[in-house]
Amino acid sequence: MSPLSENPITTILIPKSKTNLDDVTNWRPIALSNTIYKIYTKVLAGRLQDWATRFSALSPCQKGFTPFDGVLEHNFVLQTRLETARARKQDLCVAWLDVTNAFGALPHQLIYKALTAAGTGEDFVNIIRDLYTGCTTNILSNDSATNPISISSGVKQGCPISGLLFNISIDHILRKIQGTATSHRVSE
């Protein structure tokens, strides 16, 4: 067990917009951890990113939480597809998915299974399991903090490795949708 497994986490809530602040869904939880934990998980994230790049562990269609700006590529692909469909007077179907609470809803067991299936190795999976097992947080407000709350699902927003863990966890879904296509399409 890592000395960081008992890392105390404090969660602050950041508004997503300036409207409807009474609605809890309009607040984004950000996990604040101590400096040693952040350095440790930053090193783990770097190693995991290097490994994922070297072994092509992520679908090339994944652009979030990667070291390059993939949003530009996705915007370019979408714009090109729209222009081509207009020029050829063809129909085009575009799906835009926004999964509610995607970071917070991810089961921890899915993270471990996805890391194992991707081939990260048992030692690395155990390190990640150690970071999440028994993890609690206190939600900090202007007035006080809550009693400890168990974190039983989700990745920690604000943690350096969370984005990459999320990517690896959803990668099998993206690859199923993509199939054997080499471009940004599901089918012709």
Automatic annotation (TrEMBL):
Top-level division of the source organism's lineage: Eukaryota
The secretion signal range is none
Which InterPro entries does the record cross-reference, listed alphabetically? DNA/RNA_pol_sf (IPR043502), RT_dom (IPR000477)
User: Which stretches make up the Reverse transcriptase domain?
Assistant: 1-188
> Which Pfam family is one of those matched by this entry?
RVT_1
Which processes are annotated in GO (biological process)? DNA biosynthetic process
**Name of the protein in question:** Retrovirus-related Pol polyprotein from type-1 retrotransposable element R2
- The organism is Araneus ventricosus
